[in-house]
Write a structure and sequence with these properties.
This is CRISPR system Cascade subunit CasE. Pfam families: CRISPR_assoc. It comes from Amycolatopsis sulphurea. The protein is of the alpha+beta class. It folds into two domains: about 1-90, Crispr-associated protein, domain 1 (Alpha-Beta Plaits, 2-Layer Sandwich), CATH 3.30.70; about 95-215, Crispr-associated protein, domain 2 (Alpha-Beta Plaits). The chain has helices at about 15-20, 20-30, 40-45, 90-95, 125-140, 185-195, and strands at about 1-5, 50-55, 60-65, 85, 100-105, 110, 120, 140, 155, 160-165, 170-175, 175-185, 210-215. Strands 5, 8, 9, 12 and 13 form a five-stranded antiparallel β-sheet that branches. The protein has a four-stranded antiparallel β-sheet with strand order 2-3-1-4, with no helix packed on it.
Length: about 220
């Protein structure tokens, strides 16, 4: 597993194009990975997850993958400094049952409408937290309580992610960012969540969990 840190140039033509259309951003990132025979899910095959974080008035993009990327594919001027890529193995090796970690994840909390089968976004913070707690039960972690018994997680609304796959297909993702602490309950399930991500809209910047030792 590899984790890359891309410090993007917000004035570059390519980043401005990608920021306006998340499908272009997805394609730009996927250009760093080898092509596969037609019909294979390239993102899934390479295990690509990403997240765009605001940082000191600009943006840093984190990209995780099974395959080592070649960021020389990015257009000149897309980054303000060379891409930094490292192995994620030390992070995976440090996952143990009962360990408390701080985490950040941009996610797409939704529910499936039983009649239309459409995915409806959760817009209330309590519903978004409940979604996270349920995901934790499935993916091998729990959210400890903070003062007052509330889950020790901050929920931040991020700008709606938009774009177009083509003239007919519009992309709209109402994502939120979770920052807080979690406790690992099942090493296998949690490691799988780190590797494969959580929830929907993984091609569009959701589902990547970043962890660090809790202080």
């Amino acid at each position: 597993m590899f984790l890359s840190r891309l410090t993007v140039n917000t004035q570059s033509r390519t980043f401005r194009r990608d920021y306006a259309n998340v499908h272009d951003m997805h394609r730009t990132l996927m250009s760093a990975y080898p092509e596969l025979p037609q019909g294979e899910g390239v993102r899934q095959a390479h295990g690509v997850l990403w997240r765009l974080d605001s940082f000191r008035g600009g943006f840093v993009q984190y990209v995780q993958s099974h395959t080592e990327p070649d960021w020389n594919t990015l257009a000149g001027g897309h980054l303000v400094k060379p891409a930094e890529t490292r192995s994620l193995q030390p992070v995976l090796d440090a996952v143990t049952a009962g360990r408390c970690l701080t985490f950040r994840m941009v996610a797409n909390p939704t529910r499936c409408d039983g009649q239309t089968r459409k995915h409806i976004p959760y817009r209330q913070p309590d519903d978004q937290l409940d979604w996270l707690v349920r995901k934790g039960e499935r993916h091998g972690f729990v959210i400890p309580g903070a003062a007052g018994g509330r889950p020790d997680v901050a929920v931040t609304v991020v700008p709606t992610i938009t774009g177009r796959k083509n003239a007919k297909t519009k992309i709209t993702v109402e994502a939120v960012r979770f920052d807080g602490r979690l406790v690992v309950t099942d090493v296998g399930a949690f490691t799988a969540a780190l590797v494969n991500g959580v929830g929907r809209a993984k091609a569009y910047g959701c589902g990547l969990i970043s962890v660090a030792p809790a202080r």
